[in-house]
Amino acid sequence: xxxxxxxxxxxxxxxxxxxxxxxxxxxxxxxxxxxxxxxxxxxxxxxxxxxxxxxxxxxxxxxxxxxxxxxxxxxxxxxxxxxxxxxxxxxxxxxxxxxxxxxxxxxxxxxxxxxxxxxxxxxxx
Length: 125
Known about the structure:
By secondary structure, this protein is of the alpha+beta class. It contains 4 helices and 6 strands; from the N terminus they run H-E-E-E-E-H-E-E-H-H.
């Protein structure tokens, strides 16, 4: 899966949009001002960081040791809640899409109820 394909998949999610709060070298996808995907280059590789809950994050790291790692650029206390991987690592496409879906669900699940309802209304319109 290419960076562009994954970005397009993520942008189809209700309320998703691109931002560049850390400069032009990283592309950030947000929903309701909250980050759910971070695209960046690391040592020449196209990398992605997704949010996750602690258990799911650990599960992916155990399933793909060395390929899926704790949030690369996150402070240590936040690392268990983020997974980073290279799109060039050969992860199965369905796993990458599952991680994208999970990240979006984690982020939107933490939004205030009125914002969650607004997203549902957008989705249904």
